[in-house]
Amino acid sequence: MKKFGILCLALVIALGALGVGYAAWTDTVFITGTVNTGELCMAFADCNLLDDDQPVNPGGDYPTANPDYTCNNGFAFETEEGYFWELDKNVAWGEQLISQDGKTLEVTLHNAYPCNFNELGFYVLNCGTIPLKIDHILINGQPFSTGVPYVQIDFNQDGYYDFEIQWGNNWGAQIDPDGRSPEFSFWMHTLQPCPQDQLDTLTFTIEIVGVQWNEYPLGS
Known about the structure:
Elements: H1 2-24, E1 42-49, E2 69-71, E3 84-86, E4 93-98, E5 104-110, E6 116-126, E7 132-139, E8 142-145, E9 150-153, E10 163-167, E11 184-190, H2 196-199, E12 201-212
Antiparallel strand pairs: 1-6, 2-3, 2-6, 4-5, 5-12, 6-11, 7-8, 7-12, 9-10, 10-11
């Protein structure tokens, strides 16, 4: 019995020594590094309107070298003069303003009237480090898919459409860092139900929502 106790004590001492030895051989290696993420950035650039000429005598200068334009409802079909054509008076005009951060484009139409047509053209700059594509747009904060090129808008929420817009097909074009997009164009047409008091000055905003090139289109 005494020998057995000595044997157990020796075994405990041996295991303890083994544990100390094992702890002495344990170590941890840490790897540190830095990840620099890319930046997704876009901005409006080089915006213009087809009719931005303010008349000196609205409607009274006849004939005029800077006439208004008109088109069919829904931009429905092309005539001999094209999808839109000149009238004989200069009555309405438009202005565009890019916000200071380049993210919002404000469009104001002055002295517009039913059947008045104007066209907006603009480019988008990639001010980031990641290739991008424009996924959709916001008009007065309301999202619209670029896959549906025609929309009607009820600006004053009276249940009647006041305005219609149709845009071109350059959405989805890749814009590389420091690059500029192809031209985007918006056809804009004032509809008959638009209230007269709203036509004196009709203002709305356009914003663009872009995604990195391999995420286009969102939700796919």
